[in-house]
Amino acid sequence: MMIGAGILKGMAVTGRNFIGSYFEKDRLTTVQYPEERDVLPENSRNFPFLVYDTNDPEAGLRCVACKICEKECPPQCIYIEKSADKKPDYMGKPQFYPATFDIDISVCMSCQICVEVCPFEAIKMDKVYELSRRERFDALLMRRTDLAKSNSYYHSIHPLEAEQVDATLAAAAAKKKPAPTPAPPASG
Amino acid sequence: MSLSTRAQHSAVEAPPGMPSRLDGELLEVSMGPQHPSTHGVFRMNVALEGEVVRRLKPVFGYLHRNHEKIGENTSYLGSMPYTDRLDYICSMSNNWGYALSVEKLAGIEVPERAEYLRVILAELTRLVNHASLLGFLLSDMGAWGTPLMYAFRERENILDLFESLSGSRMMCDYMRFGGCRCDLPPGWMERARKVVDGFPHFLDEFEQLITGNEILIARTQEVGKLSAELAISAGITGPGLRASGVNYDLRKVDGYGFYPRFKFRVPLGEHGDCYDRLMMRVLELRETLGILRQAMDDLPAGPIMNPKVKIRAFKPPVGEAYGRIEAPKGELGFYLISDGSGNPYRYRVRPPSLINLTVLEDMCLGHTVADVMVILGSIDIVMGEVDR
Ligand code: SF4
Ligand code: SF4
Q1: Residue A2 pLDDT more than 50?
Q2: Are residues B118 and B152 in the same domain?
Q3: In chain B, what residues touch A41 (CB-CB under 8 Å)?
């Protein structure tokens, strides 16, 4: 065989791809970020947030400051302080709430373990990106106020998962119905 | 080298701890850690005679991050996301390797569906790894851009699948002790089938690009030969070993997971040179596609998690276990000693990249500097795994 035939064959492949890209749109796989954006899949995750019911990010917070997530978080980036008093949770039962709930998202590795271990469906994964900041420390330390997001927001980013969670919570609430002060499971 | 520079050189005293100056015939070059083709922060101290390598000392540790010590101080579950960061191209197989050893340690059963999913995901990871390796290797040889971009186009399709399943493209953190974290999202299997069905087209195109290419043949055949004896005695595993003609594939030898249920062949090389190692990947890709099709056809319904496994406060009994899998790069093993508490007493990783790297000097001696890059590329290393 002629020397260089193999190279020419390779060139032909490159040429076909190059010319083909003008005619077949599915050959163009690049997304022109930031002008165009891919739609993130439902399961996509990056940093955790705290879910609250109703419209009140203070009173509706599902977290009861049990500190399980703080203990299980592998890089130890969650810091929680338990409140001194109690407030009623979504079932009307008095519960503690986190007086402080910080997540250092410069340390968080988006592993989702906090979500898995939380027994109260209180912490979920967010999908926000473009979080770069000029400062290294405080701007990346998310306080309770930054972390609290409504259940309807949760529904908007993980619709299927949020449905399931609501169903589980409603079932749990129905079981406890005979309790003296039943409050409706509110989804804001 | 002119006489005057030599005179200057001999005036420089070697710093303490360094080998004294070579005899004047050899030139010592430090390649890396920022060299574009060292696949990460890897350094080689190469002693050259003209252009020919006479000595080569790998230097690693630039990416050391205490993986094993951290593993001994976090819970068993907490190490799972860290294993993603070992070989960050193949996080799914790392997850599997670690889950396998913990399951051995605690005697956990895995449901059938989860086992199938694991095979599917590990084989998809193999596609990702081998496709990117082919691209990188060609760009090490000077085929800048094009083959790598073709490979990455395919890789991106698979990473999209990983993202829609596990939530992350590369740091999947998907497998759990006794199963997998979540079930397939709707429509996933159809998309996965499409990717698998489209892959042979990429492979055919890629093979046209490389087979018969005179430059590629000249740069890889008879370069970096590794004899079967040396490969065995150095503990080389994976495609590098099989390219030397040794039939050793843990999927066949150990038959972990459900691999014995699938029909596939283990491709073997003959010469143990870079060309064989390259072709080994192409052939393995074809076999992998076969496994994927079988697993996708047979995927049973059912639970994906063993309900008996506690997620919080997981404590295996006292004992030790070594779990190993055939990762795309070779044998990936996790050795665990449990003292019955919530974190392992000892956690040790056997990374294929590090051990496959130990024969680098033997493979490079007598070849030119330019060949070193090709040989290194054909070993297929990831520094996240070498340094840990
Ligand atoms: S987020 Fe969940 S696990 Fe963490 S403290 Fe609140 S209730 Fe407990
Ligand atoms: S996602 Fe992982 S690293 Fe981040 S806060 Fe939750 S447990 Fe910690």
Answers
A1: yes
A2: yes
A3: 160, 163-164, 167, 185
**Which tokens go with B296?**
């996708």
Q: Supply the pLDDT for residue A188.
A: 38
Judged by average pLDDT, the poorest of B97-106, B125-134, B142-151 is B142-151
pLDDT per residue over B276-295, tens digit each? 888 888 889 988 998 988 88
Question: Which of these three, B41, B59, B77, is where a domain ends?
Answer: B59
pLDDT of residue B388: 81
- Look at residue A11 and tell me if it is in a domain: no
Total domains, chain B: 2
DSSP state of B40: S
Distance CA B152, CA B145 (A): 10
Model confidence pLDDT, tens digit, residues A157-185: 888 888 888 888 888 777 765 544 444 44
Ligand 2 in reach of A147 Cβ (< 6 A)? no
Subunit contact B214:A43, Cβ cutoff 8 A: no
Q: Kind and range of the H or E element at B85?
A: none
Report yes or no on A181 lying in a domain.
no
Residues B6, B102, single domain; the answer is: no
Flag whether pLDDT at B19 surpasses 70. Answer: no
Residue B36: HSE in the Cβ half-sphere, 13 Å Cα cutoff:
8
Q: Report the domain count for chain A.
A: 1
Nearest to A13 among B74, B164, B208 (CB): B208
Mean pLDDT, all residues of chain B: 83
DSSP state of B259: G
B122 in Cβ contact with B92 (< 8 Å): yes
Same domain? For B84 and B166 the reply is yes
Round to whole Å and give the CA distance between A175 and A3: 80
Parallel, antiparallel or unpaired: strands A48-52 and A148-150: parallel
Answer whether residue B378 shows pLDDT above 80.
yes
| Residue that terminates a domain, selected from B59, B76, B94 | B59
Residue A96 forms part of a structural domain? yes
Q: Where are the beta strands (DSSP E) in chain B?
A: 27-31, 43-49, 52-59, 175-176, 179-180, 319-327, 330-338, 346-350
**Predicted confidence (pLDDT) per residue in B353-364, tens digit:** 888 888 888 888
In angstroms, the first-to-last Cα distance of chain A is: 73
For Cα atoms A128, A132, A134, give the angle at the middle one, nearest 5 degrees.
150
| Cβ count near B50 (within 10 Å) | 11
Contact assignment for A116 to B181 by CB distance below 8 Å = yes
pLDDT tens-digit series, residues B29-76: 888 777 766 677 888 888 887 788 888 888 888 888 888 888 888 888
Q: Whole-angstrom Cα distance, residue B232 to residue B107?
A: 31
> Domain containing B240: what range?
67-387
Q: Is B12 helix (H, G, I), strand (E, B) or coil?
A: coil
Nearest in space to B172 (alpha carbons), one of A41, A14, A145: A41
Quick one: pLDDT at residue B334? 92
Q: Is the pLDDT of residue B22 over 60?
A: no
Chain B residues whose C-beta is within 8 A of a chain A C-beta are 74-75, 77-82, 146, 150, 153, 156, 160, 163-168, 171, 173, 181-182, 185, 205, 208-217, 311-312
